[in-house]
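Retro notes, structure queue

What went well: the backlog is down to a handful. What didn't: a couple of records were mislabeled last round, so from now on we paste the full input next to the output in the thread. Example, using FUSC family protein from Gluconacetobacter tumulicola:
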Amino acid sequence: MNSREPSLTPDLARLRDLWSQLWSGVPRRQDRLRWLFAPDLLTFGYAVRTTITSLIALGIALWWELGSPQWAALTVWMVAQGTRGKSVAKARWHLFGMVVGTIFAVALVAACPQQPLLFILLLAVGIGLFCFVGTLLPGPATMTNYRIHGMRASGFTYAIIALDGIADPEHIFQIAMARATYIVLGIVLESSVSSLFQFRLGERARDRLSHNFLTAIDGAARALSDLLGGDGQALTRARGVFSTITTLSDQIEFAEVELGRHHGHEGDHARAALARVAVLLSRGLDLSALLHMPGHVEGDVFGTTAASVRTFLLALPARLQAGDIQPSLLQLAGLRATCRQAIADSLGEEMGSDSRAPASEDEARGLQWQRMLHHALDAMLEDLEGAITQFEASLHPLPHDHFHYRIKTFRDWRLAGANSLRASITIFGAGVIWIATGWSVGLLFLMFVSIVCSLFSTLEKPALATQAFLTGALWAVGVSAVLVLWTLATPSTFEVLALCLSLPMLAGGLAFAYPTIILAAVSYNLFLPILVGPDNQGRLDEVTFFNTAMPLVLALWYAMWSFRLVLPNDTNAMRWQMRSEILKGLRHVARAPSLPTTIFVVERNVDRFVRLLTNAGETPEPVIDAYLQGTLSAMTIGLNIIRLRRILARNLLPVAATQVIEAMMGRMEQFSGRYGGHYGRTARAAKLASQRIAAQAGHEDNLGVRMEMDRALASLNVISYELDTNRMFFDASSPYLDTAFG
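Corresponding output:
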């Protein structure tokens, strides 16, 4: 029976639910505001410390009677971070960027004091240049990478000094020194005050390095143990481990800062250990491909070895956390010896002896498969041994250690050019608006647009970041309106001013630690001092306040839409370009005169993997999964091509086997055509090569050559399996994989 009760609108339904909860006394969840009324101790300490520091910087700037004291407080909020290492690293690069930006700004104003159009053009080109260089610097384009922040600070300083100086070019040097003074004051105060709240800094930094590795090795060990337990999709579900490794590796430089100038090479060893974990997972992909081959028998020798390794992997993270490193390395060496002994026993059983006949053809095929699995397992354990060794070196620095593991840089010149052009066009358009309209506060509008372009044009999603920034700016406008138009109308001493600003600043500091609103919190913290505009000579009146707030909101709105319209982030084009680069990369690995290292191939593809996850957006999940699987598959193929080339370089294979592998490599050298049908010929060449090597191996009597042929056969089988499994990704006959899931 249909109910006669009228349906409630969503608003009325929510009001009814709220009333029922209040009447019944049931507590309501307030998770969205938990950061404000129930922050953790570290977040509260950061907010209090930064608020006090920014107020001290503001007080000193007022005491010195500087013209725009709000920039000192703003700099504190720009530099302050949750940990000492991040704060110091960001302060260093911010100071470097300030020096570069100041020099460029003085040169710009001196070059064209009476030529506004040329001034705007050079301003846009200069910030575009900083964005171009920042995109090419090491590390991902995130707000936590402070090399890139150095270039952002350069553009930021370049804009505020040049735009202030162009209105009074005769005093550009004094203006530049004043702005530099604010920035230096904010940096020095933040670094000094934050150092007072840091205890056991070096010990906590080493603990962080240890925790990073244990986090990565725990995820890798669980995935590999599930794989050895028979779960063929274990590595597919563990894709997040690659993102974790990238994130943790990016944070190591901050721990190095906290260790001080007298630290050894703990950070280098920690980076190398995390890279080895990524290589370890790539070995797991090889093993997964070989396990999909027919021939597995329950209770076989490999099953016994895999069970022992699985038990070891499950217990490894806890043992390493307890400091049980040397016994773990000894047990690991024993497992590797077991693998090598199983390989030798298998060869002996297949080839026979005086008292035993050689194995039949079917038995030989099964024994050969067992050897390939043991070879792959031994190689995986070797990489695990290298990771643990590097981990131990990061915990216990070696005397006279000269080990260095540099941060890898994967430069994308096309992306750098797009970021630069996007920033330049946006700033030049804002300048044209100012000149065409003759807006009295057009310089302020142009300054805010330049600041946003300096900060966000190097991000992969600048429009979304600017939208979040606009939200924070609107909150800053609302809070500052209350302060300027009501609360700060009567105070005449700095103490009362600081008291009025303390609670709004404290709220912004608490919001900074909440991940979902972090960009809005940054915007709020930056623009609140500008909108309040404290001054020794008077108070901000209503007209001046609105003439500051309106250009700010319009500048952020203009920049947001400009980022959406000018060279927008096209995820389809990005994925196609990445897919094309992967295919060309396989061709390069097959034909390059100098062979790339396995770690380089792994880190390059992990970087692509993380970028795909970052730019997933609203892309259908099957498409993203296919691209992620294809990237990992391409990494696996590239690593096995390197192993085949090393086998050829050792020159231990028979002539016939060498010719077969060289023919397959010749096909792989042409594996980057877009519409040439190269996929089918390459896949057939890999399958044919594995069949011929398997047939030739049965007639080889030399044990050393036989083992080398088994290694080559394992790599060929992995390549053939990956090409067959991910045909949609590697067959470039269509420009986009997305159409396959339409």
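Agreed that this is the format going forward. Reviewer comment attached to the example: The CA atoms of residues 266 and 395 lie 7 Å apart.
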